[in-house]
Amino acid sequence: MTEPIIRLTNVFKRYDDTEILKGIDIELEQGKFYTLLGPSGCGKTTILRIIAGFTSATSGDVYFDGQRINDLPANQRKVNTVFQDYALFPHMNVHDNVAFGLRLQKKFSKADINQRVHEALTSVRLADYADREISELSGGQQQRVAIARAIVLKPRMLLLDEPLSALDAKLRRDMQYELRDLQQRLGITFLFVTHDQEEALAMSDEIFVMNAGHVLQSGTPVDIYDEPINHFVADFIGESNILTGTMIKDHEVEFVGKRFECADAGMRPNESVEVVLRPEDLDITTPENGKLTVTIESQLFRGDYHEIVAYDSDHNEWLIHSTNPATAGQQVGLTFEPYDIHVMRLHETEADFDARLERYDDEQAEVKRP
Length: 370
Known about the structure:
Blueprint: E1 6-15, E2 18-28, E3 33-37, H1 44-52, E4 59-64, E5 67-68, E6 79-82, H2 94-105, H3 110-123, H4 139-151, E7 157-161, H5 169-186, E8 189-194, H6 197-203, E9 206-211, E10 214-219, H7 221-226, H8 231-236, E11 241-249, E12 252-255, E13 258-261, E14 271-277, E15 283-285, E16 292-301, E17 306-311, E18 317-322, E19 331-335, E20 342-345, H9 350-368
Parallel strand pairs: 3-8, 3-9, 6-7, 7-8
Antiparallel strand pairs: 1-2, 1-4, 4-5, 9-10, 11-12, 11-14, 12-13, 14-20, 15-19, 16-17, 16-19, 17-18
């Protein structure tokens, strides 16, 4: 098995009496795009800072290519960071901003610096902007200069701390494509921090979902979206209809007073559960052909779909994404397939959660094994 480029083992971080990270265990392989995803204050940026060497773990170990680097200074680590505010020097032009780190090392000739700066700017499609002042650039161009300044030093790994947060919606979407393309062209490991679920799903090879100092779940975007491990992940990643129910037996679950075939198994008979149905997996039909009957409350047009809110007879709210409009007050049927139903345990104890997380990790390791 290939040694991961980065491995964090049982990492804790405390500031005074506040525990920011609580036993983080993650591994990052060479050449992949990883994302730390979670709400503000969950510990994402702290992990980045520990890997970069800007702060130290209170306990636990950090390994780079199998070598423990807890005590290695930041300037000796083969990683570089793109900060949220880009940290560009306004008194320097584009070329000099990108060249700054090379000049600090005092081991490159002027010709070498010029060549490496040109290569870095070409990588981010700014080769013709070398003489521009920073104030003359758009937000997206400034972000690319910051990336060029990071990759000109040829790091093994690039850390990106919410670098798209200051951009408008369209530019942000464009930069998602550019960052993903750049990572694939360079072939280096990217670790990206964001609280934006859409960004994480669009760009990542693997996502680590965090909350309150824990990594709750890791996996591909499809794994995370289709098989959330608990209520927080299901609610945080995309939009969901989450209802309480009972797992009658393997492949049969009861919710909203009815029993449905499902794909899940392995729980106790008649165990209390939560049921997740994604809005895009619900199809509107006639009441007589539906598995459920709901009454339309309201709808909003979102461009490529209608976002519809409806209620059933038990006053459960249903969110539906449909390409067809609906009418307020209209009674309709909802239909879905067994594999659209995802079942999660309700009110897990900490021991239950740890055990299920271990089983999930074992399953993922089995999937990845050739």
